[in-house]
Design goal:
The protein has one domain: sialyltransferase cstii, chain A (Alpha-Beta Complex), CATH 3.90.1480. Helix content is 40%, strand content 16%. It has eleven helices and 13 strands. α9 packs parallel to α10.
């Protein structure tokens, strides 16, 4: 039997598993209101290189709809740019029994969102996180300027035709590995035809190191907290092994190629204008070239 046959069987299996996941875990009939004022959006990752754009290109960024993620509300740029969309994907935002540092980050981010936002903004939250928000984050759910929009974070795999159909109808995403993956899919499904990506450094491998005890540590830099100390990399309740971390990085980078394929099927152009980036799935452009 040939490799192509095994690949075909694998896709059948993954497609069946995906359909079961959708039936049991996804919320049906989720629709997004299309953005009517512009056909392009700037998606901001939180990589360290974003600080260059925020200092040099702030006037350009103010002219376009902006989608930002996770801890962006902790920065001064949040109030300057007044983003139209904000995406939360990290399970820490609706999980219990977090480490003190993580809990502080979550509380500070959500408090900043509630206090700083004085313009109309859509906050995207996964379906599984919405129940926790209803119980503990009423200040956001009843916020006069923040509109809560749930999205399905069920991972979909299998035949590309099926996967693209499920993505188009907001029934799932391609991976939960980092927040930019659902953010780009949401931007496509919001009707934008040109997506410009900034702060997608994805340079974690440069910040990995092993201690003398073979503990893998990461200096996880963001544009708003580059001075953060190194922390052990965990996989569940145990330290991650270095090959597991590189496998995870490779999986995320591979997923961007799947997003590029989906974007083309929807006639959407994605440009990676990050100052520094290891994402090679999207055409590279400098921000001034695009405007």
């Amino acid at each position: 039997m040939t490799y192509s046959f095994f690949l075909f069987v694998k896709r059948i299996f993954l497609s069946c598993i995906t359909c079961l996941r959708i039936i049991f875990f996804s919320r049906w009939f989720i629709r997004f209101k299309k953005h009517e004022e512009s056909d392009e959006v700037i998606v901001l990752g939180n990589g360290p290189s974003l600080s260059v754009n925020l200092e040099r290109d702030i006037d350009i960024l103010k002219q376009k709809p902006v989608l930002c993620v996770n801890g962006f509300a902790l920065s001064d740029a949040f109030e300057q740019l007044k983003p139209s969309y904000y995406v939360l994907a990290d399970a820490a935002f609706w999980s219990e029994n977090l480490r003190t540092k993580t809990q502080n980050f979550v509380d500070n981010t959500l408090e900043a969102l509630a206090k700083k936002t004085n313009w109309n903004m859509t906050l995207f939250i996964p379906v599984e996180g919405y129940k926790v928000f209803k119980k503990k984050r009423q200040n956001l759910l009843s916020h006069p300027f923040i509109s809560i929009q749930v999205y399905n974070s069920t991972v979909v795999k299998g035949f590309s035709g099926l996967v693209h159909l499920l993505l188009k109808y907001n029934l799932g995403i391609l991976s939960r590995q980092n927040v930019l993956i659902p953010s780009l899919i949401l931007a496509i499904n919001l009707g934008f035809k040109r997506i410009i990506l900034l702060g997608a450094d994805h340079s974690w491998h440069r910040n990995l190191f092993l201690t003398d005890e073979n503990v893998l540590c990461l200096k996880d830099d963001h544009f708003y907290d580059e001075s953060s100390p190194p922390i052990p990399v965990m996989l569940g309740n145990r330290p991650s092994r270095i090959h597991e971390q590189f496998e995870s990085i490779a999986k995320a980078l591979r997923t961007y190629w799947e997003i590029a394929h989906y974007a083309r099927s929807q006639m959407v152009d994605i440009y990676n204008a990050s100052e520094i980036s290891y994402v090679d799935a999207f055409q590279r452009k400098r921000l001034p070239e695009l405007f």
